[in-house]
User: Which sequence fits this backbone?
């Protein structure tokens, strides 16, 4: 099975404050483990929602375009992995080990990809 | 530039109602166009959030696991594309044309994917790993 793993945004990620060297290295080490373990299909980080837009569809009307940033920062996505896993539990166990530098906290959402 | 295009969930997708035959056919055509234009890097749909989980980190405590479904339907992700476009405007133009045969209201969010040059603290070691990740993704296609 494949899973989309989403790291939710934080005030720092939305402010465009990139990861510190230490955070980058911790994440890189974790990614290397996942990669060597054959888990990673791909992994990407997103720029802040201020660089993004939303396209709103409603009935037959021409879609509306709204520029970011978007307010609900806790629901925004800051980065993703697409991972191979045996089950939801398997991927949950893996992500519990994700680096949490400086114990900043945060939410990771794990969702199965439809096959 | 690469963009992650996030299609938000709605009541139907969260209820596990798959797309109608018409939508599926039109989406197939649209994806084919994206491939032909060399724009499509990846595209996937997700199952309802009832099949998902969240891992919540708080301070130095053990992370907590919260099972789906999650309530805030309109903020949930229903599916996504990763598209390669000249700029954001080109990406928006593609997405404005995405099929919506039932005239459903919906929201699609377009976000630029970060490249190595976006990270001011990038190190040669991390960049090398990024390169291997890229090669891995390319191999998956």
Assistant:
């Amino acid at each position: 099975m494949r899973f989309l793993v989403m790291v939710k945004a934080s005030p720092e990620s939305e402010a465009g404050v990139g990861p510190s060297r230490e955070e980058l290295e911790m994440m890189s080490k974790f990614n290397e483990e996942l990669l060597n373990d054959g888990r990673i299909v791909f992994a990407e980080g997103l720029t802040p929602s201020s660089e993004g837009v939303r396209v709103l569809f409603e009935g037959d009307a021409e879609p509306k375009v709204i520029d970011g940033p978007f307010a609900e920062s806790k629901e925004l996505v800051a980065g993703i992995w697409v991972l191979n896993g045996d089950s939801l539990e398997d991927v949950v166990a893996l992500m519990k080990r994700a680096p949490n530098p400086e114990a900043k906290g945060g939410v990771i959402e794990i969702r199965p990809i439809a096959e | 530039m690469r963009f992650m295009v996030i299609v938000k969930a709605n009541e139907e997708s969260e209820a596990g109602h798959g797309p109608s035959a018409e939508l599926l056919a039109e989406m197939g055509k649209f994806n084919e166009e994206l491939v032909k234009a060399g724009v499509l890097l990846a595209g996937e749909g997700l199952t309802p959030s009832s099949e998902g989980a969240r891992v919540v980190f708080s301070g130095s405590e053990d992370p907590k696991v919260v099972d789906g479904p999650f309530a805030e339907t309109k903020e949930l992700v229903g599916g996504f594309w990763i598209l390669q476009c000249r700029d954001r405007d080109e990406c928006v133009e593609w997405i404005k044309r995405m099929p919506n045969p039932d005239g459903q209201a919906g929201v699609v969010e377009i976000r630029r994917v970060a490249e190595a040059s976006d990270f001011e603290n990038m190190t040669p070691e991390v960049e090398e790993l990024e390169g291997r990740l890229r090669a891995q993704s390319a191999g998956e296609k």
In short: Chain A touches chain B through 59 residues (CB under 8 Å).
